[in-house]
Structures are given as C-alpha cells and as structure tokens.
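Colleagues,

For the teaching module next term, I've prepared a clean inverse folding example: a structure given as tokens, and then the sequence designed for it. I'd like students to try predicting residues themselves before seeing the answer, so please don't circulate the second half yet.
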C-alpha cells in the first residue's frame, strides 16, 4: 500500500461493523470486509460465516430467499432449517452435527449442527504490513459447550491482502475439557448466478463419486442445466485424491472460483446441486466424513485440530 497517496488505509482496505435494523435478521451484528477486489460480509452473530461475497463487483455466493435470519429465530419450531437457512457464500456445518437432524444423548441436534447459530466473541481486526503487502486478519471464536458435556472452542481467522483476489480461512478447534471430545465439520460453500449457469463446469480430482440423494445422475454431476420449475435437488459425495493442495474449481463464463484445502484433513467433498427456478445453487462442501455417516474426529483433552480453506477468484 502506497500510504503517501491516501489519507487513511481504510480508503483501500478495511472493515465496517453494523447491525441489521429490520426484517428477520433484525439485531444481527455483521461486518463488511473489503480490499478493493473482494467485498464480503461476515455474519458475526452466526458463527462468523460469510454471508455476501463480491469479486470486482460481481456477486459470487448464493443467498436463499430466507435472507439473513437472526439466531434468536433460527432453529425454533417456527423457523426450522429450511426456513432459516440463509445459505450465503459460507455456512459452517458442525461441530455437533452434519446432515439431517438427529437425537443424541437426549438432545435434538439441528440439521447441519449449531455452529452457525452461535454468536462469535472476542472479534478483532488486525492490520499487518509484511514485505510491502498490507494484510487484514479478522479473528473471533465460538464456544461449543454444555453442562456436564463438551467444551470445544472454535477459533476462526480470515486473512486477505489489499488488492488481492484470495481469501484464506483458518479454523482451530480446541478441546478445553477434561475428557475426549468428538466433532464433525463441513464447509457448506454456496455459489449462485451469475457465476453458476448452464455454461459453468465443476472441475475436481476424485477417486469415486456416488449419489446420496434419491434423484440425480452421476454422468452429469459436474455439468449444469438451465433453471427448471420445481426440480428436485441432487446430492453427490466425491471421494478425493489425497494431498495437501487439493483443488475444486467452478468455471463460469466470466468468473472462476477455486477451493484449495488439505484432503488429508477433509478427504470428501459433498456436491449439492439444485437447478430449480429460484433455488438455483451449487454447494461445494469439503467435509471430513463420508455423508451421510456421522464419523466424528476425536480430540484428547488439550488437543487441537487446524483446518484451512483458501478461495481464489479469477476473471475468465
């Protein structure tokens, strides 16, 4: 950043916190993060997930017709998952459940878990200059606890640089309790129009693909069709080749989005495909277990696990 040209670094790269004042999301605290190329909105009261994301002014993520729903409404009888799911660019699934709602130890675990219902705390923004680059780090944490039960802490950190087209997420899950604790994790990344249309293609390296939903066709799971009224959703499970630099990439007509993550930590990718009018979306979802199995990863007391996910955006 050439500081001699600007009165404040915030004119080029920074954050703004605000609270929604109306609608189902009323009272929800949000944070806008911008760097001149990427412009994203974090929902601080919903696990620090990424609600909106724009690349050079073009919307990338998919927003459901629900819009933002306050966590005070989400998960209630009046607002079950289908009515409170905002989608957004990133919706975190876990740490207690991934998949359909289940009962465990006398407690009903909501569909895709409670991670996105928990407000973040200790949210901080740190600016750093490193080798001529101006970096922003946004950090926060959510506590996953219960009386006589689990004590897991999720520490989240986003990093982006001024003028850069890359967004990095690092999650650190810590067992702060005195007994072993298991957790589940899936990154529900949702892409929509105009990045997604019938001309887009999904590229990834896999070992095997199987159909999870009642409908679908593996022969066309990486291709997309025009919106169709009342069309059923399709869900596929891709088993990935091992390695720390695994990539999935959606190539649209104007923009491509790449996902890079460690397939040793997240060896599967769930593909959620809906070609329905109004619900036209592709979910690219790195995960740690073969859906619909709920195979938890166990942490001993004091242990931690680190998961990273990097998104890169390009003009085609």
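(Answer key — instructors only)
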């Amino acid at each position: 950043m050439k500081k001699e040209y600007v009165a404040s670094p915030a004119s080029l790269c920074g954050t703004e916190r605000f609270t929604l004042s109306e609608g189902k999301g009323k009272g929800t605290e949000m944070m806008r993060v911008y760097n001149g190329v990427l412009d994203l909105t974090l929902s601080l009261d919903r696990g620090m997930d990424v609600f909106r994301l724009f690349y050079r002014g073009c919307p990338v993520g998919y927003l459901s017709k629900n819009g933002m729903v306050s966590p005070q409404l989400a998960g209630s009888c009046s607002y079950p998952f289908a009515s409170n799911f905002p989608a957004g660019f990133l919706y975190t699934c876990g740490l207690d459940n991934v998949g359909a709602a289940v009962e465990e130890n006398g407690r009903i675990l909501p569909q895709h878990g409670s991670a996105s219902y928990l407000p973040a705390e200790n949210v901080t923004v740190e600016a750093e200059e490193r080798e001529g680059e101006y970096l922003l780090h946004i950090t926060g944490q959510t506590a996953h606890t219960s009386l006589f039960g689990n004590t897991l802490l999720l520490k989240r950190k986003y990093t982006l640089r001024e003028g850069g087209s890359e967004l990095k997420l690092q999650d650190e899950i810590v067992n702060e309790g005195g007994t072993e604790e298991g957790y589940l994790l899936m990154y529900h990344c949702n892409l929509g129009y105009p990045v997604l249309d019938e001309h887009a293609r999904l590229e990834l390296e896999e070992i095997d693909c199987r159909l999870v939903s009642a409908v679908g066709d593996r022969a066309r799971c990486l291709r997309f069709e025009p919106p169709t009224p009342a069309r059923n959703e399709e869900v596929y499970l891709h088993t990935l080749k091992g390695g720390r630099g695994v990539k999935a990439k959606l190539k649209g007509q104007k923009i491509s989005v790449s996902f890079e993550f460690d397939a040793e930590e997240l060896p599967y990718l769930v593909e959620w495909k809906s070609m329905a009018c109004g619900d036209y979306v592709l979910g690219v979802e790195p995960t740690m277990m073969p859906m619909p199995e709920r195979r938890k990863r166990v942490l001993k007391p004091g242990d931690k696990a680190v998961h990273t996910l990097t998104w890169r955006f390009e003009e085609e």
